[in-house]
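Researcher: I'm preparing a figure for a lab meeting and need a structural model of a single chain. I don't have an experimental structure, so a prediction will have to do for now. The sequence is pasted below. Please return the structure as C-alpha cells so I can convert it later.
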Amino acid sequence: MNKNLIVVVGPTAIGKTSLSIALAKHFNCEIVSADSRQFYKEMSIGTAAPSPDELKQAKHHFIQHISIKNEYSVGDFEKDALDKLNELFKNNNYAILIGGSGLYIDAVTKGLDLFPEIDIKIRQELQKEYKSKGIENLQQQLKVLDPLYYEKVDLNNTHRVMRALEVCIGSGEPYSSFLTKPRKKRPFNIIKIGITAERQTIYDRINQRVALMVEAGLLDEVKSLYPYKSLNALNTVGYKEIFKYLDEEWDLDFALSEIKKNTRRFAKRQLTWFKKDLEISWYDYKEDIESIIMHIKKSSL
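Model: Understood. Here is the structure written out cell by cell.
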C-alpha cells in the first residue's frame, strides 16, 4: 500500500482551504472536498466555497457539483468520493480530503454505519408531525427513544433528528446502537491533520468571515434562493437567519449576529467531533507548513 490520503480537518474559518492548496502544490496532487455545505452550485458566498483563484491553484472535486434541488446523501458522497480517490491514486501516491463535516470525513475514512431499511411511511408521518408541531416535539421524542444520541446530535438539524427518529421507530432500537460498528478497511494509508487555534481567535476569524460574506453579496445570494427556502440544503447557518430577515421576523443586525453566534456553535461542535478522533495530529493555524509536510512524509507508506 503506497497510496496516502491526507485528511485536513478543523473548525470553520480556520484556514483549511489555504493549507490544503499549499499541500496539494507540494505533493502535486488533487483535493477532494468533504464539506457538505459547499456541494451546492447555488450556494457559494454563504458557504465560503473556495474562490475562483483558489480553484485555479489546485484541482478540486465536489465543489458546487450538484443543485440544491437534488437529493444527495452522505452515502452518495461516500461512494462518489471513493470512486474519485480510486481514480486519482492511479496516477499519484497522494490525494487530499478536506472538510469540516465530520460525518462526511468519517464516511470516506471509516465507512458509514449500516442501518436497517425503514418504511417510508414512518418518515412521512414524522414530516407531518414536524409541520404541525415543530422541531421541539421531535426533539422530545428523540430524548425518550435515544437519550445517548440526543446528547450529541445537533438538535436544530431537522434532517438528522428526523433520521434518528425514523430508525428508532422503525427498528425498535436506539439510533445510537447502530453507530458502534467496526470501521471499514480502506485500500490507502490515512494521515489526518487537524488545524485549530485559541477559542477567541476562532471566534474573531468567524466574525471576520461573516463580514466578508456580507461585503461579497450574501444578502443577494440568499434573496435569489428565497423561493427554495424549504429545501433541506438551505436549512443551514448563513441562510436560515437571512430568511428570517427577509420574512421581516428579524432586523438585519440581529440576523447577522445570529449567523455569528450559530457559526460559533457550529465550530464548537466540529471541534468536539474531531477531538474524539485520536488519529488526528493537531497543529496551530499559524504552524510552519514545513513541519506539517515533514509529519506527512514520515507517516506516508
